[in-house]
Amino acid sequence: QNSMVLSAAIFITLIGLIIYLHFVKIDQESLLVIGSLGIQVTSSYASGKESTIFIEMGQVKDVVINEAIHMQKVIYYLCILLQDPEDPQGVSEVVPLFQSSKPRLDCLIEVYKSCQEILEQRKTAPQSS
Asked: InterPro entries attached here (predicted)?
């Protein structure tokens, strides 16, 4: 009977590990910004599964570096601010990026500058009807 309990515990642990690797453990996060199209955020899990989110450029109001206090520590993260369709000056949603990898502030600043360059090019380019 003890071996049956031990076998069940091992089986449950293995199932839990597989679920963790497939749905929770993110190995890599990437951000692709195309000024004329939109922003693609891809997360690659340890199991090989990939999750992709695409945000049309017309929905993007701005990209910002936000800060939060967590466990007596200030953490910085990159966010996409989505434009409110009813209020052009308002923000409808904040989409945080790189939540698993938690890059340092100097890395976030580099990504932020690149995103801002692309957003500025989009604003200065003539809009087609």
From this structure: PIG-H, PIGH-H_dom
